[in-house]
Amino acid sequence: MGLQPLEFSDCYLDSPWFRERVRAHEVELERTNKFIKELIKDGKNLIAATKSLSAAQRKFAHSLRDFKFEFIGDAETDDERCIDASLREFSNFLKNLEEQREIMALSVTETLIKPLEKFRKEQLGAVKEEKKKFDKETEKNYSLIDKHLNLSAKKKDSHLQEADVQVEQNRQHFYELSLEYVCKLQEIQERKKFEFVEPMLSFFQGMFTFYHQGHELAKDFNHYKMELQINIQNTRNRFEGTRSEVEELMNKIRQNPKDHKRASQFTAEGYLYVQEKRPAPFGSSWVKHYCMYRKAAKKFNMIPFEHRSGGKLGDGEVFFLRECTKRHTDSIDRRFCFDVEVADRPGVALTMQAFSEEERKQWLEALGGKEALLHSFNRAIVPRPEGSAQLDKMGFTILKKCISAVETRGINDQGLYRVVGVSSKVQRLLSLLMDVKTCNELDLENSSEWEVKTITSALKQYLRSLPEPLMTYELHGDFIVPAKSGSPESRVNAIHFLVHKLPEKNKEMLDILVKHLTNVSNHSKQNLMTVANLGVVFGPTLMRPQEETVAAIMDLKFQNIVVEILIENYEKIFRTLPDATPPESVSQSPPNAPPRQSKRQGQRTKRPVAVYNLCLQLEDGDSPNPSKEDTPTSSLDSLSSPSPTTATVQGLPGPDRNHLVADGDWASTAASQTRPPMVQWLNPQSPTALSCSPAATPPSPKLSPFLSCPPAAPADKPPESVTSRKARAVYPCEAEHSSELSFEIGAIFEDVQTSREPGWLEGTLNGKRGLIPQNYVKLL
Predict the structure, then answer these.
(1) pLDDT digits (tens, 9 = 90+) for 236-272
(2) Less crowded by CB within 10 Å, the N or C end of the chain?
(3) Helix, strand, or coil here: 487?
(4) Cα(665)–Cα(460) distance, integer angstroms
(5) 389 to 296, 396, 401: CA distances (angstroms)
(6) Beta-carbon count within 10 A of 201 CB
């Protein structure tokens, strides 16, 4: 049962039971007061803890922002650049989240702490003051009554009457005060229900608003997360391929290190101990130097270096050689020694000691001393041994037979070209194909004797057995360069130009092969071989450096990108002629293209939160591309050309270890066994590049933290409308987003209209519709 009501009539009786009921109300208010006081304390602790958490999160975000990955080599792939930038994006995400957390902490103070403090001070505090008055008047009233009743009846009547009046007045004042106190007690009991709960409701509303805003941030972040997952998957696949190549090279060098010395500008180089003579009492000492010698100039460099002192490098010395003489053990109590006479210091000879007799002979040979060997100190680049495979009529027959069989029997086989055949069967099929007599008799299209994986492995083995890779040693470096830099359009143009510099037979065979691979990628929904997967398989097959080094292997990922570009742009590269001159950067600097933004962002501009707009998804009506059903599935995880198609990234089923041979082209198979077998993203609008933004003199507008996308313009400021008309390009532009158009100066656009993207137009060029920067064109 709750508190009993306090009747006003009881104030006049002031019975013991009335006093008990008043006391019960007072105890309840005191309990409420203590609870609110403790709650305010806990609320302040919560705010302090929230601020501490926010400070720790911000510190974490700053650490993410300040770290930068280093990479091996001279360039990164687009995937690696996205991964590098991801730490900064994570930092921005946390920063925005913490801004909302700080807003929540401030709202706790305003919506919870201050109202409760006000209620406790103004309402509960007022009741306490009323209680003090009530207790004081109670004491005064009953003390006066006791005193009055003790008056002697013998007093004068006038004196007694005056005392009676005084007592009655005091009793009336006490009754009035009692009535007010009882009214206040009951009022505060009812008031506390909403005065206390309403701030709590505001507090929870603010907290749930914060979590809702975090949820909204996460939804917007999800697009970026999906793109980053594809970047990571691509990088992991390339890592697996690179690692297998590095391990293979390491094992070759381990077995025969002499045959894998790198070509050097020096005739001889390596460590030698050089005798340094000291004054008579101290004798001499031997100091290790790294020595380099150029025979043509007879120039000898030596630098003292001690590994055991943390790699301390001393001051180097340079001199010109006069002659070199072998030292025998009868003249010096050390082995493997020889003397070197300095040309510009007559009579000065240095005694040096090699690590072994063999190394001493090599140094003597290089320095022109006695007992010179017939072989060179440094191995020249050793070409790969030639196999029986040749780029001739038989080679074209082998290629066409294999391709025809694959397209007839196995175009939809999962893991096509990644699943490898049994080694013995592959070698036997390749031998039959390379024999003129048996090649014509083989019917690969209708014979069940040869599995599709055996045919694909034989085709790859033939290409790897060519004396020179199909894309040649000479142009290897030229093909790698555009894959390391530039926009997607410039990469395609550069590789288009280089393909037409290949020897005619090489270009013809590459044409046949890439046409086939394009067909394979068009069936990637069934065979899971996206453009990126085919790049991993055929990058090392079609391109390889003349010298095997770790640095060359680190460029393997760029070879994959070159193959991706060939597949994705087959029609342009092989069916059209390139420009007569090599692609060059645009000489004229156009103005900045306006930043891109999506409609989704503008829908939430009223929320007090910085919503990330990732510019990754165009809604219906924005996309100039066909629907998913009409679009062949190519490689969303390809970095060469960001095509907005449905992407499937899957760990392919591992090969049967009892029946499959190791193949460097499927280096990621083992890794796929430890990962979930299938990760599928069905996001048809996920370009990897951002908005078109060539270099320009005017400063770029301030962009939001995520993927350089600005806040949405207010809904009450629509862009200036452009009715359907023509426009001419006054600056060139290379698209960096699948929904944008690339064009040269003078290009004429049809059906130009205002886009919902501020600062952009929509138009049609050569049958393709897309976005155009408004300040790049002149309306006609």
Answers:
(1) 888 887 888 888 888 888 888 777 677 777 888 999 9
(2) N
(3) coil
(4) 9
(5) 40, 11, 15
(6) 12
